[in-house]
Amino acid sequence: MQFNDQKKGTLMAFAAVMFLTPDSVLIRLADISSWNLIFYRGFIPFSAVFIGLLFFYKTNLIKQTISNSWHGIAYALIFAATNIAFVTSIENTNVANTLIMIALAPMLSAVLSFIFLKEIPDKKTWVAISITTLSVIYIFYDAMDTGEMLGNAMGLITACGLAVGAVIIRSAKKIDLVPSAMFGKLLVALIAFYYADDLLLRNFGNNFFNLKNDMLLIPIMCIMCVAVPFVLVTIAPRYITAAEVNLFFLLETILGPLWVWMVIKEEPSIETIIGGFVIIFTIAVHSFLSLKKSTI
């Protein structure tokens, strides 16, 4: 089956967000300090992707990374800052506040793409961004008063990082920035290592397979919710616009709280259910119209 650019980008962005959605609840379940967690979220994905890229590039890995030039350096720095900001936000405010901040990423991507890449989003993308952003505001309107300032600020930085990162990738479509993102993860680990105090992972449950076992929980989180999504998100903007990629992240605003409800038993509000339906329906329609247009 032949996939055109629109199909490739859409599939990658959708898959990335599906892997990413349990991330918030797994961060909450982890029983270690923020900097210790950030270290593992840098070191484990770096190690996993490094092994994978060694098979792909073999001896040309360093050469490929260096050839990425300023695009690679900029993306690695933005990627590292975004990763640290996300975890800091989740642990210093409620999940709702973080996700509503991240929901600003598609709008920011569209504006930045228009300014720097002269890439004008089509009408349906602007409509989808507007509807989904309003839906997110509707879902979490009351939650904005309950979080801490640090967490909210870090959430906003995360949204800005996602937007800038997607635009950098889009501006260098012919460059493979996955090696640069990998070294961005190494930078995260090095920064966190300086502040980390106790990197020992413990099992606080009665058996190995339980939600209180950091020895199991953190590696799963770092591979499934960090390593796999960051590779897909780094590749996707090469095929579809930055705004379209970040539009899929709005799915997390509804699926993230659902994971929290299923695992931690925090029931979603009626606003979450209504707004979530609107978000999923809007993204589904937008994706269908985009894919239909790409096949004409």
In short:
By secondary structure, this protein is mainly alpha-helical. The chain has 14 helices and no strands. Helix 3 packs antiparallel against helix 10 and helix 5 packs antiparallel against helix 9.
Explained architecture:
- The chain has 14 helices and no strands.
- The protein starts with a helix and ends with a helix.
- It is mostly helical and 296 residues long.
- The longest helix has 25 residues, at 270-294.
Mean pLDDT rating: 85
SSE string, helix = H, strand = E?
HHHHHHHHHHHHHH
Low-confidence stretches: none
N-to-C terminal Cα separation, in Å?
Answer: 17 Å
Largest sheet: none
Strand-residue proportion: under 5%
Radius of gyration: 19 Å
Structural class: mainly alpha
Helical content (DSSP H or I, runs of 4+):
over 70%
How many DSSP H or I helices? 14
Number of separate strands? 0
Whole-number total of structural domains: 1
What shape does the CA trace take? globular
Helix/strand layout:
Layout: H1 5-20, H2 23-29, H3 34-57, H4 61-67, H5 69-92, H6 95-102, H7 105-117, H8 123-139, H9 149-171, H10 178-195, H11 214-235, H12 242-247, H13 252-264, H14 270-294
Helix pairs in contact: 1-11, 1-14, 2-11, 3-5, 3-10, 3-11, 5-9, 5-10, 6-9, 6-13, 7-9, 8-14, 13-14
